[in-house]
Structure formats: structure tokens, C-alpha cells
Amino acid sequence: MNFDCLIALAGNPNTGKSTIFNALTGLKQHTGNWPGKTVLLKEGSFRHQGCTCRVLDLPGTYSLTASSPEEEVARDFILSGQPDAVVVVADATCLERNLHLVLQVVQLTARVVLCVNLMDEARRRRLQLDLPKLEEELGIPVIPTTATTGEGLEALKDAAIRVALGQLRPRPTPVPQTAGEPATLLYRRAEEIASLVVRGQTRPGADLTARLDRLIISPTWGLFLMLALLAGVFWLTIVGAGYPSQLLAGILFQGESALGRLLQTLGVPAWLHDPLVLGMYRGLAWVISVMLPPMAIFFPLFTLLEDFGLLPRIAFNLDRFFQRSGAHGKQALTMAMGFGCNAAGIVAARIIDSPRERLVAILTNNFVPCNGRLPMLILMGTITASAVLPGPAGGLGAAAIVLAAMALGVLATFAASKLLTATVLRGEPSFFILELPPYRRPRVGTVLVRSFLDRTLAVLWRAVVVAAPCGLLTWVLANVSAGGSTLLARLAGWLNPLGRAMGLDGMILLGFILGLPANEIVVPIIFMGYLSAQALLEVQDLGAIQSILTANGWTWLTALNFLLFAIFHWPCATTLLTIKKEVGSLRWTLLSALLPTVFGLALCTLLTTIVKLWAM
């Protein structure tokens, strides 16, 4: 596609820059690495008044002094001369701090537009901004916006395009050069401008953010409220996913006959029918029916909490625990990202400037269960809870079990971080300044669309791509015999002594091994192993699942050990490749796989031994 201009978006974190980017580009965006760097950049496009514009969303940064990879990328891109215009997004409620970056950018290029965002927040706080005076002091166009409602976006597009095409030529006012350090002069000038253009202040106690923060980041209630919110999300996910999952399974399994007729029409031989239908198709049907409903509920709910402004507060609540573990407080944010996808959490560790602390965050990210392991936890939690608490109470019990599994993963993250920082990764912990953004009304429509496209469908597609060949491989292993037993049975038999010592069995361990490409396919592989040449047709509801597991020797101890090992085992192949790319070392990559696996082996073996001794 030919573009008429290139526009760069810059700004401090939590100014709504990403919301501006999404509002400008809609669904026409993608993500890629900056050449030669490990920093992800979002790129999109929009058309306005016959002009096609390419938009690059630079990393959020407070400064361009290049003390981090993000700041370096932002500075280098602006200096490169590639952008035809730079739109700096500022927060209207804290203009003084944001103006420091604006003044830095106008020193690098004159083609700048200032977007004063969150004007609705400023009005709610009774702040009055003299924007014509601000434009006069800076010498660049100033456009007020509220990205969540679309206010001012058309004017922003007009200004950015006019500057990019040379129709409007800003003349930035230089910072007076008096005695003092350049950085000090910029801060002093930002303070001076803010004092001229900002009037009014928030009434004490009247701000919603202040009132909510008294509870949410309270040392007494903060953690309890955070756990209660997560429990509510898990409960809604578990209760809401049951019926859609059964309905989807019925539809997909009914499509098998249509697929069989199609293969027959195409002249596919009988020996190829079973691997394709009983192996690939039914494995895919299981993955889709089990994964899609909970993800379609969990991701939007989690994203709504994120959009509301809770993730930085979770980091704030957990910061002191990471500090005691010798790790960086920002690891709380990377850990939260790991709940969605461990690979994404590992990439997010780039926000930690210290290489040592970044490595700690990377090596321990797999201790929290990702979305690929979430269906396993929900399934086993539901089975365990339903055996003890039938009826509606079973949903609450299952949510409590899943929440306990998540909490155990967090505690293990603290323990592993302390172990690493006390041994192979010793060093002085650094500090960081965490900005708590104001609470904002979530953009429900945008959240539903973006979470479904960017998270649910993306993760599901990855699982489907992996599940197809793995389903075929599992079917072949379950149907090819050697020495009187199938290859799958032989492999499971070799692993059975270790599995029994862990309170599991060889087929379960084999499922985890064959599920290395993606955690989502572990359970289908185990069931295909248990059912041998049969298909997964019988596995359409909770009762059928419980009957199959019981028939294969499962007890409450097996289910509990399965939960533990589902949390603590080696990362999936995608995560391992991401770790290798981020750390550039095979040694650290192998340690990242060994560390959680040792935890899982030790916990399962210890629990099994205690139960056996208790029963004697």
C-alpha cells in the first residue's frame, strides 16, 4: 500500500496513547519488532480527506534520554527523519509532567502536534486549561481530545496531516538557555508553562480514583479485594462456559459425519479416513469446544479490569513482595501478562531496565499458569468440586480451586525469584516509580472486539495449528502396534514408574510431553490414550469425563497432582523459543524449563508420599 505520510505517536505511559492509536487505525494494525531491537511496535493506517496515513505507535516513555531500549527506539525513530509528523499525546490532568517530553521532542523536530487527551477527566476534576495560551507558549498546534468518546479525533487527523504534508509549519518556541543543566531547564520550562495554562484543582475527597484507591491499594484490604475480583472472574468463566462448551462440542462432533461424506466423495481411501477424522478432526473438535468458551469469557473480563486501571494497582500491591524476593517491582506486571500468555509475559519483561532483574522475571514467568493451562485447571477444578459440592455450589468450589492454583503459582514465583537472587543471580535490587493512572470507564465494545480478535482467536488459532498434527501423531501412536501393544501404550509404560511415584500415571506424563507444542492439547492427548482407537466422541459432558477418568484409576489425589503438575512443568515450545530469543542463551533457556519442572516433580512426589504414609 502506498502511503501519503508517516505519523508517529509518542507520549508518556497512561496518557491514552494506545487508545488514540486504536481510535485512529481501527482494525488496520499489526505488531512487529523494531529492526535490531527487542521492542515491539504497533503500526496501523487510516484514511482522512483522501489522504492515506501510516501510523507508528512508539513505546510509552517519560524521557528521550535513552536509558532503556524503549526510550532509545523512540528517540532514534524521531531523529531518523522518517516521520512526517510526530503527535505527542499528553494527559490533561497532569500536564506539567507530560510537557517535559513535549519539550524534548520539539528539540529534535519541528513537525510536532500536541494532543491533550483525557479532557473529560480534566473537566471532571474541574481543571481549566487555556489551550490557546499553551499553543502560543509551545509554538505548535494543540488539539484537545477524549479518545474514548472520539472527541477531537477529526481535528487531530486534520492537524497531523497538514503538518505532515507541509501545509502547516509549526515554529516551536526554544527553551531559554540560562545557567543550569539542560534537563533542569526543560523541567523548569514545563513547570512555567503549566502554571500559565492550568487553573483549578480537584476537590479533596471528591475524586473517584482517590476514594477507590483507599480500598484497592490499602495494605489491609488491597490483596483481599484483588483475590475477590479474580475469584469472581473465574466463577463467571466456569459457570458461563459449561453450556456453550457442550453445545459447541455437539455441533462440532455432528459435523464429523459431513466430513466423512466429503472424504468419501473426494475418493479418500479408508485407511486415511480414520487418521484424518478420528485423529486430526476430533482432536481439533475437543480443543475448540473446551478452549473457546472459557477464553471468550475470561479474556474480555480480564481486559475490562485492565482497561479500568487495575493492573498497575495489582503491581503496586505486589511490589513489596517482589522487593523482599530480591526482584523488581515491575515483575508484577510481567507476571500478570503471563496469566494471559507466558510468551507475552516474557516479552513484557523488556520494561525492566536491569538485565539481572529482567532475567529473573523471564525465568520465573512460567510459574503462573497461562490461558493454555487455564482450561485444564477449570476442568480438573470442576471435576474435583462437583464430587464434593454438587449443584450450584460446585461452581463456587471450582472457582476457589482455580483461584488457589493461581495463588500457588504466584507464591512459587516469589520463592523461585528469591532462590535465583540468592544464588546464581545475586545483586542489589533496583527501584522504580509506578504511576497509577486514574480509573476510567472501560470501552466495552472495543474491549470485546479487541480481546476476541487479539487474544481469544489468536490463541485458539495457535492451538488449532498445533493440535492438528499432534492429534494425527497421537492417533498413529495409539493404533500402530509393536510386540503386542500400541506404541502409545509402550511409551506410557516406560513412563509409568515415574508417573506412579508422582501420583499420576505414564499416560498423563506422556500427554504433557507430547503437549510440548501447546498446553491446550495435553488433555485431548491423554483421553485419546485412554480411549485408544476410540475417538473423543464420548467426551462431551462432565459425567462422561469423570467416568473415563475413574475407569482409568483416577482418584482425588490423581486430580490434585494433575493440577499441581499442570501449573509447574516445562514451558510450551512457543514460550521456550521466546525465552531463547530474549536471553540469547541456551543455558538460561534450559534452566527456565528445568526450574518449574523440578518444583512440580517435588510437590507431586511429596504430596503422594505423605498421603501414602498417612494411609499406612
Question: Taking Cα atoms only, what radius of gyration do you get, to the nearest Å?
Answer: 27 Å
Shape: elongated
Beta-strand percentage?
5-15%
Number of DSSP helical runs: 24
Helix content: 55-70%
The largest sheet, given as strand count, sense and whether it forms a barrel, is:
7 strands, mixed
Number of strands: 11
Low-confidence stretches: 31-38
Mean model confidence by pLDDT: 81
Strands of the largest sheet, in order across it? 2-3-4-1-5-6-8
Based on secondary structure, the structural category is alpha/beta
Total domains: 2
- Give the end-to-end Cα distance, rounded to a whole number of Å: 73 Å
Description of the molecule:
This protein has 616 residues and is an alpha/beta fold. The protein has two domains: 195 residues, Rossmann fold; 370 residues, no CATH class. 63% of the residues lie in helices and 8% in strands. It is built from 24 helices and eleven strands. It has a seven-stranded mixed β-sheet with strand order 2-3-4-1-5-6-8, with helices on both faces. A two-stranded antiparallel ribbon has the order 7-9. The protein has a two-stranded antiparallel ribbon with strand order 10-11. Strand 3 and strand 4 form a beta hairpin. Helix 9 packs antiparallel against helix 10, helix 18 crosses helix 19 and helix 22 runs antiparallel to helix 24. The protein is elongated.
